[in-house]
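Table S2 (continued). Query chain:
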Amino acid sequence: MSNEAHNLAQNYIDSPEKQKKLYKRTLVIVSISQIFGGAGLAAGITVGALLVQQMMGTDAFAGLPAALFTLGSAGAAYIVGKLSQSYGRRIGLTAGFIAGGLGAIGVVIAAIINSLFLLFISLFIYGAGTATNLQARYAGTDLANKNQRGTAISIAMVFTTVGAFAGPNLVDVMGDFALSIGIPALAGAFILSGTAFILSGLVIFLMLRPDPFLIVKSMKDYSQSEESAVDAVEEVKTNNKKGITVGATIMVLTQMVMIAIMTMTPVHMEHHGHGLSEIGLVIGIHIGSMYLPSLITGILVDKIGRTIMAIASGVTLLLSGVIAAIAPGDSLVYLIIALALLGIGWNFGLISGTALIVDSTESSTRAKTQGMVDVFIALSGATGGAMSGMIVAGSSYTTLSFAGGILSLLLIPVIIWSRSGKC
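Corresponding output:
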């Protein structure tokens, strides 16, 4: 441990007030970056399937964009996790956001030159922004104690709502802007995505100093006994493998169900005569529902427990699938309700699962473990996205929605297993 790191750790151990200030400052910085990150994520999701459908002339591969950028986010999650473990959140998150921005720019170029090969490669790289936007939620927990973690996660996520809701509702505006400069209308959303991800990366790079994760690591290295550590930094002596497994399973299942239904909703709506503005509204409300309830969810996760909120996630996702399946295709109201519930169910699962992961890891391996868990989350999303188009092409959107709702019920046996021990 260097003298500089030693002195820095000593300063924070000796001053709980400094820790509280850094904790609050970190939440503010991460929240600002999440506003931009949410816009970058949401805009691309709204039109990705439509862009591929337009370029390929078939619905069968409409789920491919979600599959590609979620698959790309799997690789990015691992890399960002490794970078964060070695060099801190600042370097890891900055690298991920900048890569996502470059991927979005690549999508725009691919649309201009009508290159499917470049489109697929760029969508894969664009996934780095998606992964990083998700991993940013962990940064707020580094200096939080166990009773603050759900709330800390939620504060960072709730600010994503601003960008997440604005992004899809700027699709028409960005489409008009794109056309005015000779670019296909659907690529306009990715101009917004690229700009937003790069701005998010710059916020993290310029403002996240000192790095909260490096502070926690330095404090742990400095501390010679459990009594010498500050109360605000609670550690477990070994990773709780059962807690990690349960938390990861909750997030994997909720991600798969959410991505599958969300991916095909724009295509389903277009087939029933809905325009881009209506599609943008539904997806905007959906993504807003993914993040806006976060503050309440975080408090509930801290107060009534991780497992109860995970059960609530499964029930909510089931209800969403049923409503989406029985809703008339031309009914905007029913689709809004179904997609809002889909977002809320995902929110319950993500925050409860994330809190379990943080509870079950120690700082010496935490960021790396978080990255690996997010790899599996991304892979499950890629699977849901890829299969969704095939299911709808081979059967119907109704079948897809029912299947998603039933799949969410698998959370129940996972929770029963988790209750057999302490998570």
